[in-house]
Amino acid sequence: MSTTNASVGRERDPNVGTSERTFTMTIGGSPAEGTSTFDVVNPATGEVIASVPDCSPEQLDQAVASAGAAFPAWAARNMTERQDYLVAMADAVDAHGPELAELITLEQGKPGPVAVAEVAGLSYWLRETARLELRETVNQDDAERRSVTRRLPLGVVAAITPWNYPIGQASFKIGPALLAGNTVVLKPSAFTPLANLRLGEVLRDVLPAGVLNVISGRDGLGPRVTAHPGFDKISFTGSTGTGRLVMAGAARTLTRVTLELGGNDPAIVLPGADVKAIAPALFWAAFANTGQICLATKRLYVHEDLYDDLAHELVQLTDQVRVGDPSDESVDLGPVSNIRQYEAVISLLEDCRDRGYRLLAGGLPQPGGRGYFVPPTLVDNPPEDARIVREEQFGPVLPLLKYRDVDDAVARANASEYGLGASVWGTDVEAARRVAERLDAGTVWVNEVMHLHPAVPFGGRKQSGIGVESGLAGLLEFTEPQTLTVRRAEAKG
User: What pTM did the predictor assign?
Assistant: First the structure.
C-alpha cells in the first residue's frame, strides 16, 4: 500500500464552496440562513472547509409548513408533469455535476472519479425513476359495481440521508417521493451537508416553491425531524441504532417509515472458485469508498482449500492501492469520512491488536498524521465471536474467515442480526445459486456484489431495515392505497 498527502491533484472548480463561501438552506423556494452555524470538516486534512446553517426549531416548522402548503397543487399534477420535472431536475444536476462532485470530495473524502460517479448516479436515478408509473387496479367491473384501487401520495416526506453517499442516497428518496406526488424536506448528515445544500440551491429554479426544501443542522435536528407532527412519512438511511430511534420518534404520531439500516454482509467463496479472477472484485467489494458502504462485503468466508491463495492475492492488492488525500487524482482510497466513524474503526483495530489476532495487511495508522486515514486491513481468520466479525465495521477492515463445510459457512453467514446483502462466488453458477437461495438477506448476488438498478427493489431483512427503496415497490412506499367503489345506479338492492 502506498500513501500520499498531496492536497491538490487537479484544478478546482472556482464555484466550489470554501470557508469563504455562503451556503443557504432552501425553505419555500427561497434561501434561508441559520440563526447560528456549524462547521464542516475536510476528513483528509481535519480543516474546516465551510460553515453552514444550523436549522432552528422555527425554521424546521417553516420548512414543513412550506412543504405542506405546496402539497395540494403538486399532488394535483398528473403523473406526466411530475415525470417531466424529474427529468428537468436531472438536467440541472448534470449542468452542475463537477461542482457537486468536488463538494462531495471535500466533505466526504471520496476520490474525484468516485464523487463524479455518485453525482451521475443521482441524475441517472432521477431519469430512470421518471419512467415508473402508478396504475389503478380494477378489482370489480360488472353490472353491479365498479371497484378500483388507486395509489395516493402521503403528504410531506422527511428524507434523512447519511454521510457515506450524500447525493447518491438522496436519489433513492427525493425522486420517488416527488414522482408519487409528495413534497419533501431533505435533511443531510451534519458531516456532509454541502452538496445537498447546493443541490437545493440549484433546484430552486426547477421546482415550484415548497416542493423540495433542504435544511441542515447539528445532531439535535434529526430527533426534531422524526418527532415533528407535520411529517406524513420518514425515509431514513443510516445505522441500525439510529434507525431504532427514528422509529421510536415516528411512533408518537404513527408516521410511516422506510428504514434502510446497517449491514454485516457476508461473501462466501465456494470450493473450486477461480481465486485470481475474483480477488480484485472481492477486494473492491470490501474496500470501495474506504469500506463505507452499507452493502460492502464485511465478512469473507473462504473454503480452506482456497484460503491461503486468496489471502495472498488480497494482500498483494492492498500493497498496490494508493491511500491519501482524495483531491490527488492518483489516489484510490480516501480517508474515513468523519472523526466519529474513524474512532469506531480504530476501536475495532485496537480490539484485534489486544486479542492477538493476526493481521495480513494494514493495521493501526501511524500516530501524528493529519486526516482520518486508515490503511486497508486484512484480519486473518479471527474467531466468530470477535467484534470485527459480529459488528459492522463500516471502514477499511476485512476479516477473512476459513471454513471446511458449505453448510457451516451458510450457518455462520446467517448468524447475524443483520440481513442487508450477501454474495456467493464460484465457477459452478448453479451450485452458487443454490447456496445464495439459503442466505438470509434482502439482496443476494452471485459472482458480483453491490449491483443496484433504479427498477429493482432494494431493502434489508432482520435488523437491516423496514421497507424497500427503488423500483415500483420503492415508489409504492411513498403512497397508500385508496379503494373507490361505485355501485351502479341500475343495480338492485
Answer: 0.93
